[in-house]
Write a structure and sequence with these properties.
Blueprint: E1 8-13, H1 16-27, E2 35-39, H2 46-57, E3 71-75, E4 81-86, H3 93-98, H4 101-106, E5 110-113, E6 126-135, E7 138-146, H5 148-162
Parallel strand pairs: 2-5, 2-6, 4-5
Antiparallel strand pairs: 1-7, 3-4, 6-7
Bound molecules: adenosine-5'-triphosphate and magnesium ion.
């Protein structure tokens, strides 16, 4: 897998299971305050990735696509909370601001689908991923770290996947 630079990590997934497994690896590394933005078209695999991440983080419940609410929260036995915000149906930045994303991040990691729709209200430090549909079962995923915390996170992710580099 090519490593473009210290801030970037690319992954090619050949199945939903593989996308979920990558999510599990990342999820296990996350802590409160972490923000993961997942950009990609309908069916790119964003929710599939979040399902793995919540499992790796230790969530008790399965992740589903948020349908009636913008934010779903999943709990862990220690009381921490994993938040999953689907910005697809957000109608204004004000609506996104009212969700108080900072408060959500105090209790655990936050994942956002369609983050480009609410980008102006997001912290500048974050991990941003682009997911692309290549073919029926193939997806390209490109992660870019903004901020030292996320560079370290990508390093740790690389190490869990490929060993020390
Ligand atoms: N390699 C892959 N990685 C992830 N999903 C895949 C892959 N190959 C096929 N799929 C399928 O593509 C679909 C991805 O759906 P998913 O709900 O994760 O997309 P999404 O990006 O969240 O879409 P939306 O914008 O509608 O929320 C699933 O049906 C999944 O099984
Ligand atoms: Mg989705």
């Amino acid at each position: 897998m090519p490593i473009l630079d210290a801030h970037t990590f690319e992954f090619f997934s050949k199945s939903p299971e593989q996308t979920r497994r990558l999510g599990i690896r990342l999820g296990a590394l996350l802590r409160s305050g972490d923000l993961i933005c997942l950009q990609g078209e309908l069916g790119a695999g964003k929710t599939t990735f979040v399902q793995g991440a919540a499992r790796g983080w230790g969530a008790l419940d399965e992740v589903s696509s948020p349908t009636f609410v913008l934010v779903n929260a999943y709990r862990r036995p220690d009381g921490a909370q994993f938040s999953h915000f689907d910005a697809y149906r957000v109608e204004s930045l004000g609506e996104a601001e009212e969700l108080d994303l900072d408060a959500l991040m105090e209790h655990g990691p936050l994942f956002i689908e369609w983050p480009e729709r609410v980008e102006p209200v997001l912290p500048v430090e974050r991990l941003w991923a682009w997911l692309e549909y290549d073919s029926e079962e193939h997806r390209s995923m490109r992660f870019v770290a903004c901020g030292i915390r996320y560079e370290r996170l990508l390093d740790a992710l690389r190490q869990t996947i490929y060993g020390a580099d």
